[in-house]
Design brief:
The structure holds two protein chains of two kinds.
Chain A: H1 2-29, H2 34-39, H3 46-55, H4 62-74, H5 88-123, H6 128-141, H7 145-159, H8 182-189, H9 194-229, H10 232-239, H11 244-281, H12 287-296, H13 300-328, H14 330-333
Helix pairs in contact in A: 1-13, 5-6, 5-9, 5-11, 6-9, 7-9, 7-11, 8-9, 9-11, 10-11, 11-12, 11-13, 12-13
Chain B: H1 9-34, H2 36-53, H3 55-58, H4 96-132, H5 134-148, H6 152-163, H7 167-193, H8 197-204, H9 209-217, H10 222-245, H11 257-264, H12 272-300
Classes of the chains: A mainly alpha, B mainly alpha.
Chain lengths: ~325, ~300
């Protein structure tokens, strides 16, 4: 097991180097002079330009610039925004909890409902329940979520006024962030109604972001369950006279879990992609919206830093999923 | 000279090959047509293709023509609507139905282009990596890992920032982001096929590496690639629409569905039809392709057959 983990860890290093080279090259690949890109100024004097070239280190060999970038990045220094001069790392850490909160809620929503629907469809294979859930799952899987979000806003926010249109909490409440998670902070603030407001703001974004993972998990759970339900030990359990519920919920589901857990892990990348769109639609102040705004404002240092950080997160999550997978499935370790 | 009425050996072989091919196709169609959803998907997809090809003849109006007297006119069945604009008009008076019909051209073209580009690039990289192994393999696969470490839409967005917004650049960006999947699949199947006997015998018979890769091995790796291609087709349409929606894909006034949604965003409270139609078009197209994809997977993947 240790060997497996060490092998897997060794793969992280080349990937990390690749990621850092890619994000380093980003600013240099942009059309135009990197000085113009980085300074965000127009019609500079030649003197000022030379000064900036030196300040940005652009007069040094490219490999030195890269090592310098890597050195700073490893120490948590990703430079600062071109537009507002805030340090990028600090900005990221402030906004990241909002994305984590939304992503976690979407994941929980998708997992619970997806597993339930998947089991239900497998248990009633071929029935109208199966066809309906799998049909719906395919629609969910094909959903352009930016449009789905707009539709939900039209119906539930603008039409029925059940939930707010955008943001994380009503403007009536103000408190200093403690954890950065609005659900926790609103409770800690002790203000009446704050928690409810936070929950209401979360509902639509959670549904929108969770839709595709929900569909994927439901489909995966169903096929994993069907595979397991055909095995001998399930037939044995049935022939022992165990109730259908017990066979499905305990004997079969436990063994169907492995592919389902992997699927759930693989959805993290999907969720981060989805977060970019969901946060944009609902003006959710997380890293997805931050990146889109940065691209819109041509704030390329932010884009560069965000790219690196997001890729690192995806890489680490994939690593954790692989290790967890090996932990629950001993067969993979020896491969 | 052989008599014309007596079939030659070559002719017989050709006939036999043809009938074997027909048999394979027949078996494929048998499994595919058993899946009712797949057949529906195929029918809808063909209809969409016809709509895209014959758009200028089907669409009631020019998609770019602005009817200044009919701004944001609701659909025909609503109060204030007229049959001149069945699905209403947008904020500058363009016919929604015509724009949606013309939009099919863009989405399907995006899907085709992205899949072909990603497939060709990915298959070449995968073949080379799986066939030669060693340093080449390590380098190619690590680069693929790096590309896969980025959420696809985010990487596509930054590539578009480098290349400049626009439909063609969006397609290139999406193709770059998608090709690692094809490379990985090809490499995996090449590695499992490479040491089979038929490959060894072809090698002994004197086939060079190029022939071994393209003629001997590749046809036997096709099934997973075809399934991945349908998946990528629908995802490419979704991602291109998302890029358009974020203002980084096709630029207005192009009637691309995602771009139309971006323009329509400010009217979500006042004119539901400008928002609903383009999104519905995306959903139907993607759903049709995914339905077909499910059928293809059932028909092509023997491991999943009858499950």
């Amino acid at each position: 097991m240790l060997r497996f983990i060490l092998n897997r860890l060794a793969l992280v290093i080349p990937t990390f180097i690749g990621i850092s080279i890619l994000s380093f090259s980003f600013i240099r690949l942009l059309p135009g002079d990197p000085v113009d890109v980085l300074a965000g100024e127009r019609s500079m004097s030649a003197e000022r330009r030379a000064q900036l070239i030196h300040a940005f280190g652009l007069d040094r060999p490219i490999w030195q610039q890269y090592l310098d970038y890597l050195w700073h990045a490893l120490h948590g220094d990703l430079g600062s925004s071109i537009t507002d001069a805030h340090p990028i790392m600090g900005e990221f850490l402030t906004l990241f909890p909002a994305t984590v909160e939304l992503t976690l809620c979407a994941m929980i929503f998708a997992t619970i409902l997806g597993v339930l629907f998947g089991i239900l469809a497998a248990a009633r294979r071929g029935s109208w329940v199966d066809q309906l859930t799998m049909g719906t799952a395919l629609v969910g899987y094909s959903m352009p979520i930016f449009w789905w979000g707009l539709l939900l806003i039209i119906v539930f926010a603008a039409g029925l006024h059940w939930v707010p249109v955008s943001g994380r909490i009503s403007l009536d409440y103000y408190f200093k962030p403690v954890t950065g998670f609005m659900l926790i902070d609103s409770l800690l603030s002790g203000q009446k109604g704050a928690f409810l407001s936070a929950v209401q703001h979360l509902i639509l974004p959670t549904i929108v972001l969770g839709t595709i993972p929900l569909a994927v998990i439901a489909r995966q759970t169903r096929s994993a369950m069907l595979e397991v339900l055909g095995e001998d030990y399930v037939r044995t359990a049935r022939s022992k006279g165990l109730s259908n519920f017990r066979v499905i919920a305990i004997h079969a589901f436990r063994n169907a879990l492995i592919p389902v857990v992997t699927t759930i892990g693989l959805q993290v990348g999907v969720l981060l992609t989805g977060a970019i769109l969901t946060e944009t639609i609902f003006s959710w102040p997380g890293i997805g919206k931050w990146m889109i705004d940065a691209i819109g404002h041509r704030d390329y240092t932010v884009v560069q830093g965000g790219l690196l950080l997001i890729a690192i997160i995806v890489m680490v999550v994939n690593l954790i999923v692989d290790v967890l997978y090996a932990l629950i499935n001993p067969r993979i370790r020896t491969r | 000279m052989a008599d014309d009425s007596a079939p030659t050996v070559e002719a017989l072989t050709v006939v036999r090959q043809r009938s074997a091919r027909l048999e394979v196709l027949g078996e494929f169609w048998h499994y595919f047509s058993q899946n009712r959803g797949a057949v529906i998907g195929l029918v809808v997809f063909v209809a969409l293709m016809l709509m895209a090809i014959f758009a200028p003849w089907i669409a009631p109006h020019n998609p770019d023509e602005q009817f200044r007297q009919n701004l944001l006119q609701p659909p025909a069945w609503q109060q204030g609507g007229s049959w001149q604009f069945i699905f209403g008009t947008d904020d500058v008076g363009r016919d929604m139905l015509s724009r949606v019909i013309f939009g099919a051209r863009f989405s399907l073209a995006i899907g085709f282009f992205v899949v072909v580009a990603a497939l060709v690039a990915g298959v070449i990289l995968g073949l080379v990596a799986g066939f030669f192994r060693g340093v080449v393999d390590v380098v190619i696969m690590r680069v693929m890992d790096v590309i896969l470490s980025f959420p696809s839409l985010l990487l596509a967005l930054t590539l578009v920032a480098i290349l400049g917004p626009g439909l063609v650049n969006a397609m290139i960006a999406i193709a770059i982001v998608y090709q690692p999947y094809f490379a990985r699949l090809t490499r995996a199947s090449v590695m499992s096929e490479k040491n089979r006997e038929y490959v060894t015998s072809a090698r002994v018979a004197g086939a060079g590496p190029l022939r071994l890769m393209l003629v001997t091995i590749l046809p036997n790796c096709l099934a997973p690639l075809i399934v991945q291609a349908t998946l990528s087709f629908s995802n490419a349409i979704l991602d291109a629409a998302a890029l358009g929606f974020l203002g980084m894909g096709a630029q207005p006034p192009t009637p691309e569905w995602g771009t139309m949604l971006a323009e329509a965003r400010e009217f979500i409270l006042t004119a539901w039809w400008v928002v609903t139609l383009p999104g519905l078009a995306i959903l139907i197209t993607v759903l049709a392709i995914n339905l077909m994809g499910d059928g293809l997977r059932d028909a092509l993947d023997p491991k999943l057959k009858r499950s």
